[in-house]
């Protein structure tokens, strides 16, 4: 186990207050669960581990690095449970966290659309530094919103852009999937970190040439490409014919890029209050797939 930070750390309550300012809880989707799941707000926090998923592997990592707080993107208790017995999946995680004196907190959909949040970090990793919310692309200010949309400095082929996406993502067995004319020029890019196949109307309305997201299911993706193949849609104001092309990445990979930014924001905000905390970004790949075979 690594030695813990010996400087004065903030209380968990102070960390929670900073997180609430950065990613207001009331901006989360109505179905979502965000905030503190395990832990005593009065205890001191010296080391925080940032991860996408609150699973056994990241809890073990938190134990190994001596973390007082496991800060995740995904919630542990998104759906109701009737037992937290140690021999259940959720209960076992909670039992292990309590025994290890490790608090658990998450920022989920309230961090997805935030300024400097999941989708903004994703689109910036693809070479776009000026973007707007996908559901309000004409907004003057870079406010909270679903996904992001913006323009590349110059047009590139879909193949070349897909290679840029693949290079920007951490390695996963699933890799990157592409749907569209690989030789077509693309410039206007829409992204949504995590599962985003419910936002095709917003993508078309924003005039995106290509859409980067994760967990694209067969029917929504197929229907989106069928619609793109119909030239009549261009005159209907729903994007140019042939667009949007689709790029499907790992859910975990698309959101893991944000962890470094989140850690930096927490560390900076606490430093301004005169407290010091060590932040560590998880090195564990929690993408669930372990092998991909050609068919």
Layout of helices and strands, plus pairs?
Elements: H1 12-22, E1 35-38, E2 47-51, H2 56-65, E3 69-72, H3 89-99, E4 103-106, H4 109-112, H5 118-125, E5 131-133, E6 148-157, H6 158-168, E7 177-179, E8 185-195, H7 200-205, E9 210-214, H8 218-228, H9 232-235, E10 245-249, H10 251-256, H11 258-272, E11 278-281
Family: Belongs to the GTP cyclohydrolase I type 2/NIF3 family.
Subunit structure: Homohexamer.
InterPro entries: DUF34/NIF3 (IPR002678), DUF34/NIF3_sf (IPR036069)
Molecular structure report:
With 295 residues, the chain is an alpha/beta fold. It has helices at 12-22, 56-65, 89-99, 109-112, 118-125, 158-168, 200-205, 218-228, 232-235, 251-256, 258-272; strands spanning 35-38, 47-51, 69-72, 103-106, 131-133, 148-157, 177-179, 185-195, 210-214, 245-249, 278-281. The chain has a 6-stranded mixed sheet with strand order 5-6-8-9-10-7, with helices on both faces. α1 packs across α11. The longest helix is centred in the C-terminal third of the chain and has 15 residues, at 258-272. It is globular and about 60 Å long. Residues 1-5 have low confidence and may be disordered. Homohexamer. Keywords: Metal-binding.
């Amino acid at each position: 186990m690594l030695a813990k930070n010996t400087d004065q750390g903030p209380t968990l309550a102070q960390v929670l207050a900073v997180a609430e300012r950065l990613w207001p809880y009331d901006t989360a989707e109505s179905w979502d669960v965000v905030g503190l799941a395990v832990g005593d707000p009065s205890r001191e926090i010296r080391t925080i581990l940032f991860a996408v998923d609150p699973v056994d592997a990241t809890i073990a990592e938190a134990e190994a690095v001596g973390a007082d707080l496991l800060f995740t993107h995904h919630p542990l208790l998104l759906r109701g449970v009737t037992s937290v017995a140690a021999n259940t999946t959720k209960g076992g995680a909670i039992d292990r966290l309590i025994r290890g004196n490790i608090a658990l907190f998450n920022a989920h959909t309230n961090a997805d659309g935030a300024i400097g949040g999941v989708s903004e970090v994703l689109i910036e990793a693809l070479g776009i530094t000026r973007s707007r919310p996908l559901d309000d692309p004409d907004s003057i200010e870079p406010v909270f919103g679903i996904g992001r949309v913006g323009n590349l400095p110059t047009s590139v082929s879909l193949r070349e852009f897909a290679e840029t996406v693949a290079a920007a993502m951490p390695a996963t067995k699933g890799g990157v999937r592409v749907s569209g004319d690989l030789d077509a020029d693309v410039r206007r890019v829409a992204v949504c970190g995590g599962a985003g196949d419910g936002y095709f109307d917003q993508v078309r309305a924003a005039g995106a040439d290509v859409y980067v997201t994760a967990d694209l299911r067969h029917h929504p993706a197929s229907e989106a490409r069928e619609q793109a193949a119909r030239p009549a849609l261009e005159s209907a104001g729903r994007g140019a014919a042939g667009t949007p092309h689709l790029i499907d990445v790992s859910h975990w990979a698309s959101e893991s890029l944000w962890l470094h930014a989140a850690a930096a924001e927490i560390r900076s905000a606490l430093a301004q209050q005169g407290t010091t905390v060590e932040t560590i970004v998880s090195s564990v790949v929690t993408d669930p797939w372990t092998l991909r075979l050609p068919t």
